[in-house]
Amino acid sequence: MEIAIRIVHVIAAVGLIVLVILQPGKSAGLSLFGGSEGTVRRKKKGREEFYAKLTVYFAVAFLVCCVALTFVRQG
Predict the structure, then answer these.
(1) pLDDT digits (tens, 9 = 90+) for 26-73
(2) In a domain, 3, yes or no
């Protein structure tokens, strides 16, 4: 049981790292003279929205695995 949880834990950790790296940064689109996209709210589209949702799923899976590993090792 512990081995299966560890495998899912590693997959969730690596997936979370990859997804965070793939997402565009908050500073994307800043110009040299200080203009930013921060004043204009825009909706996430396409791939950005998909990555954001997938990141949440991987983060939840990672959290659940952390808690599960804690209980398995104590018992």
Answers:
(1) 665 544 555 555 555 667 788 889 999 999 999 999 999 999 999 999
(2) yes
**What range does the domain containing 6 cover?**
1-22+48-75
d(CA 55, CA 20): 7
Supply 26's token pair. 């908050």
Q: Among the residues of 1-75, which ranges form H helices?
A: 2-22, 47-74
Cα separation, 57 vs 50, whole angstroms: 11
Please report the pLDDT score of residue 75 as a whole number.
74
> Residue 29: inside a domain, yes or no?
no
Output the pTM of the full model: 0.73
pLDDT tier at 25, thresholds 50, 70, 90: confident
Q: How many domains does the chain have?
A: 1
Distance CA 52, CA 59 (A): 11
